[in-house]
Amino acid sequence: MKGIIYNAVEEAVTELYSADVWDDLLEAAELEGHYTSLGSYDDSDLLALVSAACPMTGLEAGDLVKTLGRHSFPHLANRYPELVDSSQGTHDFLRRVNDIIHPEVLKLHPDANPPKFEFEDRPDGALRVTYQSERKLGVLAEGLILGAGDRFGEQVRIETIEGAGETVTVFDVHVSPVD
Ligand code: HEM
After folding, report:
1. At residue 116, does pLDDT exceed 80?
2. What number is the average pLDDT over the span 134-141?
3. Which residues contact 19 (CB under 8 A, 6 or more apart)?
4. How many angstroms separate the CA atoms of 63 and 86, rounded?
5. What is the pLDDT of residues 138-149, one digit of tens each?
6. Which residues contact 58 (CB under 8 A, 6 or more apart)?
């Protein structure tokens, strides 16, 4: 996984907890840290960080990854401010991640392997999102989508349809304005 993701996770942990907690996590996970945006690191680093963080936070792994995704979103989005600012809300933005942002990431970092998404508008107004990746990180996608909702001032409810924790996960993203 690219260092960009580890940098965003570090920023999320620092913001939610503190820089000391990030250092404690690295130590507990027996990792060096020093992630650079251009570098590539084993996916196992992410798993080790999550395993170390569960007992420290009292959260179970899925909820923790979702929280980290949600709070990492602003840091990732900062890389493409104009695409965020010109989006018409969470649904519109998600299509841009797949059509523009992740392909741009691939151009800049040919060794990256971002997930693939398919979209379908549902009769009830939800956006059906099919996530596909060998990494089985659909729960991270959920967190990032919640973070996008925060950014666009929308309340997002994610309903898992099938395949939770699998290489293909389908979920419906329901969006409503925050009261
Ligand atoms: C906002 C700007 C975003 C940027 C700059 C960005 C960039 C990236 C990068 C660099 C990776 C690492 C790929 C690799 O190392 O192989 C990645 C992975 C990922 N991205 Fe994005 N991303 C963004 C938004 C999103 C959003 C909104 C979602 C949710 C739909 C998303 C879902 C994911 C997931 C789940 C992964 C983990 C890899 C996997 O599941 O295979 N990203 N992204």
Report:
1. yes
2. 98
3. none
4. 30
5. 999 999 999 999
6. none
> Which atom in ligand 1 lies closest to the alpha carbon of residue 2?
15
Question: Which residues have CB under 8 Å from 168's CB, separation 6+?
Answer: 130, 131, 132
Q: Residue 13's pLDDT is what?
A: 97
Q: H helices of 3-136, where? A: 3-16, 19-28, 43-57, 61-77, 81-85, 90-96, 102-108
**Pocket of ligand 1 contains residue 101 by CB under 6 Å:** yes
| Burial class of residue 65, CB neighbours in 10 A (0-12, 13-18, 19+) | buried
% residues pLDDT > 70 (the chain):
100
Q: Which residue has the tokens 């924790």?
A: 165
**Bridge partners, residue 171, by sequence:** 129, 160
Ligand 1: nearest atom to the Cα of 136:
40
Expressed in angstroms and rounded, the spacing between residue 120 Cα and the centre of ligand 1 is 20
What average pLDDT does this structure show over 118-127?
98
Domains of the chain: 3-75 (3.90.1520.10), 84-177 (3.90.1520.10)
User: Does the CB atom of residue 140 touch ligand 1 within 6 A?
Assistant: yes
Helix (H) and strand (E) counts in the chain: 8, 4
